[in-house]
């Protein structure tokens, strides 16, 4: 056996090993490739996963970003909405006092100016106040600023600003008002359209808030509501209407008709039912109660500020039910003055004038005219008696500026004097003039000019808004006027007003203009310097005649002579009865100490002989007189039977009268004949002596009359007086005639009528309302009880037996009342029945007329 080829085997083995190695390497390479491919695949998968994750992450990021952005937008929208809501709430919320003043100063300041194009403005000039009282001198009000600052300091002491309530107009409302306010003032109406929302309403709102704070009320005596009006008092309006037209019976016809009546009827003596009568053919037409919107106001300020105070005490409640023309409530409750009339409800409302406001269009009374014309001057020598126009243009403009300023201030001055107030405002929409007069020295009128464009800083903050802003200064001035009005209520000023009017002069009529070439140089008309037409002349009002001496000769029929009044003793009128034997108890508890001229104290039960000595030489009453006045004001009314005793000599004192003891002491101490004639004579003498005492306005006013409580001093006699102006005296005369016709019913179901009294000196009740005639009546009673008033609330007076009993009695005596309503029906406790009042609309029917048919027709109506 051959030996193996080891080399071949070796080589074969080597080749085999090499092949195996190669195969292994190939297998390894394949495995590596496979591994690489797997790794590549895994890498691809990982990359894909990464991409997917990245895509998911990106999508998630985008989603989160979108969500975040949406959330941010929503939050931004919410924030913006919240901001808008807060801004709206801030704009619409009520403001504090300082915020309100700042808002008015910012929004309202300098938004109005006078129209310079004369084609767009009203024509005419500022007329001279012919026939009105004017001051002798006009002087700057030098201490105006210090007085104003004192008022504001007092306000801040009782109205702390650290915790102010939000009670005033919102910014949104002010901005809305600003849009509709005219920016170019062309007429006086435009001036009112600006002053009402920008001045009057804001001041009214502030004062309304202040009057609700006890601390402020105590500091400034704000015991009243404040109201602003722009219409006539109904009495003045009615008198003006009568002056314009005579659509009803004239005073001459009424006088002739009344003079044709029997003497007993004229003198208010006992009525004889079977006595023939000649009746007036017509009665005076009762005017409308309120000022008509179409009535042109004459002789009154453009805006009047009043204080209203409602009294709810029982003693004064009775007075509210006294005899008045109940066809309307107080004239001051008319709603013609926007939102500035907030007349309170209550039993009795007292009114007191605070100040008048005169509006002038700024194109007639520009800032330049005010600054040039307002200076210290004597009106008679510097204005009224100037009858030549200078040839120099500057001098001519100066003269016209002084005339316009004098005419405007004198016009407002006359309202202030007649109204018994010491303060007034002239407003043009661009500037304000504050006026002041001391009623004790009425010859001098003081002024202070406020021009917001030059006198008020543009930026005012904090407390300075009260001191320096336009509205803040007007507010301080109103507080000053309100405080003065409160003081005048404590110290009545009727005698002071009368003395001031007697002392002052009347602006005379314009004379014939000197039109010579030397006096009037040729010139073209200019809106800033119109032709000057000053008046000339000067006259004083003559003083009233001196009061005759008042005697008390009990044996003489003419012991007390009236001052031109209506009452006279007729031939068949019984003489006032002699004093009876009075054995009643002493009335010392009811007597009132009064201060005599020598300063000693006397008793009011000692008669009226000391009326002269009881009045102080000063126009203002002393404290003793004030206390006596306060006491007598609350005397109860005399009973109807007591007052009836003054008209019938067979009846005398009524022991049931609450003032019976006072009457006894009065008659015992004076020992005089006393009846209707003596009562009216003494009362008229008393009213001639003073109208500050013993006559008290009750705050009740109707279409033709106002109601007073009247006390005959020292006697205890307390009655009701229905007063009216001179032009409406026919209505009182006619009503007096109706009362006389119903004489048998007086003191039973109608008040007792004592007759008419003429005031030798008028009672200045309101601006343009001078009470000159009084109809004296007994107290009527209280308002109807609720159970009766509710039955006849719809003028169904026949539905109540109590009312029908009284009304039927009036009808049975031949009088058709024609105005039977709840306000004209009272309940008198002493009579125990319903009392009918207000017969100015009544008519006398024929006595042979079928009364049942008459009542049936009335019921049908």
Summarize the structure.
This protein is an alpha+beta fold and about 850 residues long.
Tell me, rounded to a whole number, the average pLDDT.
74
Overall 3D form = elongated
**Most strands sheet:** 8 strands, mixed
Number of helices: 25
Number of strands: 25
**What's the gyration radius in Å?**
44 Å
User: What is the count of structural domains?
Assistant: 3
Please give a structural write-up.
Residues 20-41, 48-91, 621-630 have a biased composition (Basic and acidic residues). An eight-stranded mixed β-sheet has the order 5-6-7-9-10-11-3-8. The protein has 861 residues and is an alpha+beta fold. Helices cover 40% and strands 15% of the residues. The model is unreliable at 244-279, 289-297, 312-348, 512-572, 578-623 and 849-861 (pLDDT under 50). The chain has three domains: 97-237 and 299-314 and 330-540, no CATH class; 588-780, Phosphorylase Kinase, domain 1 (2-Layer Sandwich), CATH 3.30.200.20; 783-861, Transferase(Phosphotransferase), domain 1 (Orthogonal Bundle).
Question: Features of this protein?
Answer:
861 residues, alpha+beta, Phosphorylase Kinase, domain 1, Transferase(Phosphotransferase), domain 1, 3 domains, 25 helices, 25 strands, disordered C terminus
């Amino acid at each position: 056996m051959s030996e193996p080829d080891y080399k071949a085997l070796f080589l074969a083995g080597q080749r085999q090993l090499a092949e195996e190695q190669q195969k292994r390497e190939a297998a390894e390479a394949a495995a590596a490739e496979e591994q690489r491919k797997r790794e590549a695949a895994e890498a691809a998968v990982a990359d894909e996963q990464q991409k997917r994750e990245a895509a998911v992450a990106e999508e998630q990021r985008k989603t989160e970003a979108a969500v975040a952005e949406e959330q941010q937008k929503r939050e931004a929208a919410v924030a913006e909405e919240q901001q808008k809501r807060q801004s709206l709430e801030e704009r619409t919320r009520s403001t504090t006092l300082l915020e309100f003043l700042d808002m008015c100063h910012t929004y309202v300041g300098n938004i109005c100016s006078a129209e310079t194009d004369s084609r767009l403005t009203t024509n005419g000039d500022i007329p001279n106040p012919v026939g009105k009282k004017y001051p002798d001198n006009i002087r700057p009000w030098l201490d105006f600023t210090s007085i104003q600052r004192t008022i504001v300091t007092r306000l801040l002491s009782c109205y702390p600003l650290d915790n102010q309530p939000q009670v005033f107009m919102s910014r949104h409302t002010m901005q809305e008002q600003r849009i509709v306010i005219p920016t170019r003032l062309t007429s006086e109406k435009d001036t009112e359209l600006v002053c009402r929302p920008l001045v009057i309403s804001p001041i009214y709102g502030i004062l309304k808030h202040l009057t609700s704070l006890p601390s402020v009320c105590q500091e400034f005596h704000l015991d009243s509501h404040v109201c602003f009006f722009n219409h006539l008092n109904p009495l003045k309006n009615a008198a003006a209407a009568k002056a314009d037209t005579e659509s009803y019976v004239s005073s001459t016809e009424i006088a002739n008709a009344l003079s044709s009546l029997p003497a007993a009827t004229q003198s208010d003596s006992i009525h004889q039912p079977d006595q023939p009568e000649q009746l007036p053919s017509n009665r005076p037409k009762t005017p409308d109660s309120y000022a008509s919107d179409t009535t042109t106001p004459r002789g009154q300020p453009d805006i009047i500020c009043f204080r209203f105070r409602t009294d709810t005490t029982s003693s004064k409640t009775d007075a509210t039910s006294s005899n008045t023309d109940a066809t309307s409530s107080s004239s001051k409750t008319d709603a013609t003055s926007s939102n500035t009339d907030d007349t309170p409800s209550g039993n009795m409302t007292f009114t007191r004038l605070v100040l008048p406001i005169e509006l002038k269009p700024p194109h007639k009374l520009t800032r330049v005219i005010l600054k040039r014309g307002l200076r210290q001057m004597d009106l008679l020598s510097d204005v009224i008696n100037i009858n030549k126009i200078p040839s120099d243009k500057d001098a001519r403009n100066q003269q016209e500026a002084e005339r316009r300023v004098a005419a405007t201030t004198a016009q407002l001055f006359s309202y202030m004097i007649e109204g018994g107030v010491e303060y007034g405002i002239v407003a043009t929409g661009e500037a304000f003039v504050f006026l002041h007069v001391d009623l004790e020295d009425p010859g001098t009128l003081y002024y202070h000019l406020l021009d917001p464009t030059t006198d008020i800083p543009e930026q005012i903050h904090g407390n300075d808004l009260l001191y320096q802003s336009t509205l803040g200064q007007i507010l301080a001035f109103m507080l000053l006027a309100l405080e003065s009005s409160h003081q005048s209520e404590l110290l009545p000023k009727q005698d002071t007003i009368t003395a001031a009017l007697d002392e002052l002069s009347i602006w005379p009529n314009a004379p014939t203009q000197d039109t010579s070439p030397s006096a009037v140089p040729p010139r073209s008309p200019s809106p800033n310097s119109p032709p000057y037409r000053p008046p000339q002349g000067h006259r004083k009002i003559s003083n009233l005649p001196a009061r005759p001496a008042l005697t008390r000769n009990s044996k003489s029929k003419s012991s007390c002579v009236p001052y031109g009044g209506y009452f006279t003793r007729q031939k068949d009128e019984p003489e006032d009865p002699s004093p009876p034997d009075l054995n009643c108890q002493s009335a010392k508890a009811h007597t009132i100490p009064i201060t005599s001229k020598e300063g000693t104290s006397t008793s009011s039960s000692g008669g009226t002989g000391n009326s002269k000595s009881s009045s102080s030489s000063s126009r203002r009453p002393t404290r003793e007189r004030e206390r006596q006045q306060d006491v007598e004001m609350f005397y109860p009314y005399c009973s109807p039977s007591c007052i009836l005793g003054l008209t019938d000599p067979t009846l005398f004192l009524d022991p049931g009268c609450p003032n019976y003891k006072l009457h006894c002491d009065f008659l015992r101490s004076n020992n005089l004949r006393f009846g209707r004639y003596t009562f009216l004579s003494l009362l008229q003498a008393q009213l001639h002596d003073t109208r500050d005492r013993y006559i008290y306005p009750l705050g009740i006013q109707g279409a033709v009359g106002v109601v007073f409580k009247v006390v005959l001093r020292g006697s205890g006699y307390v009655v009701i007086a229905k007063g009216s102006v001179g032009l409406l005296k026919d209505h009182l005369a006619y009503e007096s005639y109706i009362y006389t016709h119903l004489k048998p019913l007086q003191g039973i179901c109608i008040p007792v009528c004592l007759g008419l009294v003429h005031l030798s000196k008028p009672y200045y009740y309101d601006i343009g309302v001078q009470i000159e005639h009084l109809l004296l009546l007994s107290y009527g009673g209280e308002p109807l009880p609720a159970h009766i008033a509710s039955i006849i609330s719809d003028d169904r007076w026949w539905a109540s037996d109590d009312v029908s009993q009284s009304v039927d009695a009036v009808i049975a005596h031949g009088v058709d009342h024609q105005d039977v309503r709840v306000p004209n029906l009272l309940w008198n406790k002493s009579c125990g029945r319903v009392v009918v009042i207000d017969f100015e609309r009544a008519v006398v029917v024929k006595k042979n007329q079928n009364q049942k048919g008459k009542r049936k027709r009335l019921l049908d109506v």
